[in-house]
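Researcher:
Attend to token order:
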Amino acid sequence: MPLPGATALPANTLIPTETASPTETAVREKETEPPANGLIAFYWDRDGNPDIYVIGVDGSGLVRLTNDPAFDDSPAISPDGKRIAFLTARHDPNPQFPNLKYEIYVVDVDGSNLRRLTHTEAAEDHPAWSPDGRKIIF
């Protein structure tokens, strides 16, 4: 029997009977939050050619990670916040923007441990990390 003044619900309305518990979706959303170290990675052509930089989300701690005359751009921070994948045209024998032959490199967020990941004739583009940080798609 409805309470006085209450509106009856249509017959096909579902009414929850239990309190919802955390779902797998909620756990997955947590995994895609920004890295705990609070860094922003970006490329900047501050001195005439793009290089990779990081800065704290509060605007402090600007660090230049690359310093190469070639174009370095499209940085992607790993899910654990420790590494950055990026594109570089440093191996392009005839660099002509915007048709650059990019390769993918990875560097630690402090600028150490720079390493080349790809060696192809194709032009790689826009790297992104898998959620577990073990793979990079481009």
Q: What stands out?
A: Residues 13-36 have pLDDT under 50 and may be disordered. Helices lie at 24-31.
